[in-house]
Write a structure and sequence with these properties.
Among the domains are: 145 residues, Hotdog Thioesterase (Thiol Ester Dehydrase, Chain A, Roll), CATH 3.10.129.10; 153 residues, Isopropylmalate Dehydrogenase (3-Layer(aba) Sandwich). It is α/β, with parallel strands linked by helices and 467 residues long. α6 packs across α15 and α8 packs parallel to α9. The strands form four sheets. The chain has a six-stranded mixed β-sheet, with helices on both faces. A five-stranded antiparallel β-sheet has the order 2-4-5-6-3, with helices on one face.
Amino acid sequence: MERIAYIENRTYDEIQVGDSATLTRTLKPEDIQLFAVMSGDVNPAHVDPEYAKSGMFHEVIAHGMWGGALISTVLGTQFPGPGTIYIDQTLHFSRPVGLGDTISVTLTATRKFDHNHHILFDCVCTNQDGQTVIRGTAEVLAPTEKVKRPRVELPGVTIFDRAGRYRNLLERATGMESIPMAVVHPCDAESLGGAIAALQADLIVPILVGPAAKIRAVAAEHELDLGSLEIVDAPHSHAAAAQAVALVRAGRAEALMKGSLHTDELMSEVVATGTGLRTARRISHVFFADVATYPRPLLITDAAVNIEPTLADKVDIVQNAIDLAHVLGVAEPKVAILAAVETVNPAMRATTEAAALCKMADRGQITGGVLDGPLAFDNAVSLIAAKTKGIRSAVAGRADILVVPDLESGNMLAKQLEYLAGALLAGVVVGAAAPIVLTSRADSAQSRAASCALAVLMAHARRKQPK
């Protein structure tokens, strides 16, 4: 049904006693969130699902005045419409409104007052079962002059609920046994706090590897409770990296997490011949990006380990990302091989390698996903952009995995999504003998805990693999 392009009122003289108007709306989660943001009403009955389960109604319910606002919508936009002045309102709330409920708001004119152009309305809000949820009366000063105006187009609203997306990621690991994780040189508040947050979320049992006195001093300064956590004393960051890798090789830890040391210090021990954690695969990094404006999480690779990967490197980089997507429950991930353009140009290595990777997938050299490329970023994530350019592809506009040409472009893409699009980022190193949480020194404790959730999923998937 085409939306009316104009808002037109009904004047006092045009309205007769018994006339009515109806508006129908269905309550969505974002309605509750927006109303809470606008009003500041963060009553847990409306915004805290866990609390709501134990409440009187056993589910999240709408703010009562959300329904009251719908009455105001009818009065201000259609009956009587523009020019209406609110005088009085009474409301009685009979039943709660839950997510998915469809509310019909009906206003009926019951009395008119010619001396001051007031009109009294009976207001009834019913749900999809015909049950009354709100009833009341409204008195307004009705307009006496006809008004017809173009409908103002409202701006789009996107909910940047990072806390909610953080909870969703942690819930993927709910019910899984916590894994022992060696935390390398956690000598600042964020890295130590991230390990504690992951412990409190029942994701990991941290083994803290680094200068014991310094770790305890950081904990005391920032009031972080170490409890009975094991601390493996190491004199400096390089020694901590070596000892943490040794813990994994010995089977005492199932994963690593980088603390307050440089990435190359840790990775040099991970890739060391004979003592490291290398496998037949090339090691690579995958960012998990939950972007509010995209309908599913994106995996971005490689933005942290391989600086200028060759075609052979990219084969493993793609396969590693596909395997992680399987762990996350994506049975056949759609893989977009990114470049600046969507046509093969011999002068642009990213485009020729994208074409080669797709052909290698056709020949079974890369398995478990659907590849297409080269694809520009807009074509990879936007169906409209892909259709505009005439691109027919099972991947375009629907990508689950974005494979970038090199580390610089990938790092910029991931950080732009985080800082300009409000994405929740988590990162993990794949292709090694154990998952590695390779966070940035600027990452928050929450981001580090989110990355631990990925490591937990990977570790449990490894437990199921044949030895």
